[in-house]
Amino acid sequence: MKKNYLLALLLITTAAMSQKTLLKKTDSAFENLAYMDVVKIYEKAVQKGYGTPEIYLKLGDAYYFNADYPMANKWYAKAMETESPVSPEYCFRYAQSLKSVGELQKANEYLKKFSELKSGDSRGIRFNEQTGASFSNHDEYILKDAGINTEYSEYGTAFWNGNLVFTSSRKDQNRTTQIHQWTNQPFTDLFLSEAITENQPGTVLNFDAVINSKLNESTAVFTKDGATAYFTRNSSNEGKKDRNGTKNSYLRIYKATFRNGKWDNTIELPFNGSGFNCAHPALSGDENKLYFASDRPGTLGQSDIYVVTIHENGTYSDPVNLGKTINTEGRESFPYITRNGDLCFASDGHPGMGGLDLFKAVKNTGDDSFSDAFSLGTPFNSNHDDFAYTEAPDGKCGYIASNRPGGKGYDDIYRFTKKTDTNSSGKQLTGQITNRETGRGISGAVVTVFSKDYEKIRSLTTDEKGNYQDSAAISETEFFLRTEAREYQTQEQYFHSDKDSESFIYNTTLIGTHYNIETGKDLAKAFEIENIYFDLDKWEITKRAEEKLGILLVILQEFPTVNLEIRSHTDSRASETYNLTLSEKRASATSEWLVKKGISGKRLRYKGLGETQLLNNCKTGTQCSEEEHSINRRSEFIITSK
């Protein structure tokens, strides 16, 4: 899922990731400026020699939580090369990213390290139990583009009255289009494709104006009689404010009734709540149980699968967690119950091929429990995100969603059927490069093909509509594609293609250099450069201080119209006069360092504030810990003009 991020949250307390997962956490480095701009600043800082393990991990996280695992691998690898201590979670993330580039042995090494460092974590335990196991290759199935994909995101299929209902962020010509700040795409709605034949999808229509609101709707499921729908919708920012003063929006499950030829009586289900998410409903075969994903209190990991019983009077039981057989410390989501009563779901906590993978747990006889989950293997899974498994009512075909290479949009829906004999031929590379913000094709973009050993094979240039086509077949099954264009950020990805496929379609979008910087914002908070490290009672710029200030230097170079006021603060453990003088000298030294690096002094003001603006009660004479005092020793870089 290749996402753009405007104004900041990798934290999905909204329907931010097109409701693809429930929680993807980050830190304050990504909470004030446009996400891809933050990435660009960090990458430029690395290019200028100001890279640190902390920055490498931030860059790795930025790409990891946008499901760009090959790029995450690049930055995690740099962090690991420094041999600086990292938390066990980074061993897990690095292992996942290694799978995406085919380094399975090294991935297993880091998963083993993860299991040793975090011995009680079920992800490590499952890895140890399944070491040496292979993932099944289901040769009897074939996946094909479902024929309903766009350059936007499509996923989450269901069947209603013989038609296919699915989630999409495509623009709806009949409604005012709202753009999601996080994805830079239209809000998601439910759409309907009239009965799909073997080779040709039907006309795509907006599902219903009552169910599709001004908010995000997704992942519907219907009763067999077509009279009841359960679906996901995000709330309208009515929750409590977070620490940045932003009202949180959460995912919730709703129910609607189809009567007299129209949908009405849309209600929110009672097991939703404030401060957590509920999403992606699925019905049992007898329609007496509703399964869903949630990060509600009591969740084992980042999101778990729960079930409620639907009573005959229409009430619901309390949600029950499916337990450690199904749920891990990672993400479990997108449940689906098959005709046999088995549970299919997506997870990145169970051992898999990388990213979210699809798993199945067989229903145990005699009760509502499930067996241990196993991977669906290929072609259902890849080393990218694979999720949202559903089957047609007759069981002859089914659908999954994936952001694997070769798709048309951010997420694509694939139809699976039993494989028939095929004749293979050369693989032709075709596709389109578009502007992510406008959707228009980018003329003159260059697509370069590299072998798996990173030897250049050839370059292709897009036409006036952003289209390109290779004149020669690609013989490699593993290769890299680099896409670049003037005034756009370069993109590079690793691919592993089916050797028997006749073509390889690579559509992608590039991000232009657009920014959102506001007067009064503190760049220190945005980029975590509050603490400029000085030696005790000194004001000379140290090597550690330069590592932090390098980020600030890049920002000022990238934004030549931005002016700053540098503010320096101390704690209270000296006289007021001494602290005021020391902070003034440190602010001045910071300004002088930037001027020596080429920043005009006219763009900078500085001010020493000493202990006049303490952030806590650690005043003179108050007993405080070193950690409490350190909160007050900080620098601020306030944008005074842009």
TrEMBL record:
Keywords assigned: Cell outer membrane, Membrane, Signal, TPR repeat
Keyword Signal: yes
Domain OmpA-like: 521-642
Subcellular location: Cell outer membrane
Endpoints of the signal sequence: 1-18
SUPFAM superfamilies tied to this protein: Carboxypeptidase regulatory domain-like, DPP6 N-terminal domain-like, OmpA-like, TPR-like
Coiled-coil stretches noted in the UniProt entry, renumbered to this chain: none
TPR repeat copies, ranges: 53-86
Protein's recorded name: OmpA-like domain-containing protein
